[in-house]
Specification:
The chain is an alpha+beta fold. It has a domain of 257 residues: 2,3-Dihydroxybiphenyl 1,2-Dioxygenase, domain 1. The protein contains 15 helices and 16 strands. Strands 2-3-4-1-5-8-7-6 form an eight-stranded mixed β-sheet. The longest helix is centred in the last third of the chain and has 14 residues. The chain is globular, with a radius of gyration of 46 Å. The N and C termini lie far apart (148 Å). The relative contact order is 0.10.
């Protein structure tokens, strides 16, 4: 990926907290992250699928004593860090940490925009290309809560070339303005709702199952500040706070969300119909269905199918023959046979003497 394409992309995230070890344990239980030591002393890497996704470091003693809460810092790519710092100052931004080199890592500086939200500009020595959709365990969205969204968006647009995308009406919360980079939506800007908090960036991490991640947050000492709820576009999100006070958001894409129609309970009538087996013959035992039919010899089967009297059968209407079942046609033929008169054979008639001859025989015998 060239430096021109990298400009304006969110390339790193960093948590500064008073208890780095406790934070490492917490996030490893909520997200698919593991920790790994870095070449920088006191700096820990969070890894996801063998790739670095974020950094972790403890707050210096002076920062802890000042009462500064833990915070996540976003790093935005800038091909020329020094030139970007100068441009930010001309546009009303402030320098919190001057440009600094990290040997073998890159060059960075920490700034704040005109409304006071902190961010870092960074040019990594080596940047791996990313796909269109961040995988599970990676940062997938970035959101700026600020006092003046329009002025803030104009500031970042001049620094990084961001453009305006669609806007969503949040009712009392005002408009939620989508920001785009190279034609892709990367985050949003909205009015800060909590006046007790300073303007800030909020980063979202993609998870596979939001409900399970939220349950892990609550089980390990964290708090759910908002959600889970569905946002425009079908994504589900939840804002959480770790046990030390750092805030981050969890994001489940709509592809992994069960459709609303599937979650809606079925009507009583539909539920009864659904309980019935879809196919009636499926209730028969498998042994009966699987029993093969007895095969008859080919010669006998052909002889039975062959009509005995082709001429007579052809003369009869085919419809009438087909309309009567075989079981009914057989009794009908028997009844017709009973009604037909029986012819007496001549042999039987001659074998039995006539009545007149039988009567006459005894008389002739008496005369003799």
């Amino acid at each position: 990926m060239s430096q021109a394409d990298l400009r304006g992309k969110f390339v790193w995230h960093e948590l500064m907290t008073p208890d780095a070890q406790a934070a490492a344990d917490f996030y490893a239980r909520v997200l698919p992250w593991t920790t790994e030591a870095s070449t920088v002393p006191g700096y820990t890497l969070w890894m996801s699928a063998m790739a670095g996704v974020a950094g972790l470091m403890g707050q210096p003693q002076a920062v802890r004593e000042s009462g500064t809460p833990p915070s996540w810092l976003v790093y935005i790519a800038a091909p020329d860090v020094d030139a970007t710092v100068e441009a930010a100052q001309r546009l009303g931004g402030k320098v919190l940490k001057s440009p600094t080199d990290i040997p073998g890592i890159g060059r960075f500086a920490v700034l704040s925009d005109p409304q006071g939200a902190a961010f870092a500009v960074f040019m990594p020595a080596m940047a791996a290309p990313e796909g269109a959709k961040p995988p599970v365990g990676r940062f997938s969205w970035h959101e700026l809560a600020t006092l003046d969204p329009q002025s803030a968006l104009a500031f970042y647009a001049q620094l990084f070339g961001w453009t305006r995308g669609p806007a969503h009406d949040m009712g009392a919360g005002g408009l939620y303005q989508i920001i785009e980079h190279a034609g892709a939506q990367i985050g949003g800007v909205h009015v800060l709702q909590d006046p007790s908090k300073p303007p800030h960036w909020l980063s979202y991490v993609r998870v596979e199952r939001l409900d399970e991640a939220v349950a892990a947050v609550q089980a390990h000492g964290g708090r759910v500040l908002r959600g889970p709820h569905v946002v425009p576009g079908g994504d589900r999100v939840a804002h959480i706070m770790d046990p030390q006070g750092g805030t981050i958001a969890l994001h489940e894409p709509p592809a992994a969300v069960q459709p609303a129609a599937a979650r809606r309970p079925a009507a009583p009538g539909k539920a009864k119909r659904a309980a019935r087996p879809p196919v009636r013959h499926a209730a028969k035992p498998a042994a009966k269905r699987a029993a093969p039919a007895k095969k008859k010899p080919a010669a006998k089967a052909a002889a039975k199918r062959r009509p005995k009297h082709p001429a007579k059968r052809a003369a009869k209407p085919a419809v009438r023959r087909a309309a009567k079942p075989a079981a009914k046609r057989a009794p009908a033929r028997k009844a017709a046979a009973k009604r037909r008169p029986v012819r007496k054979s001549r042999t039987a008639a001659h074998a039995r003497p006539k009545k007149s001859a039988r009567r006459a025989a005894p008389r002739r015998a008496r005369r003799r």
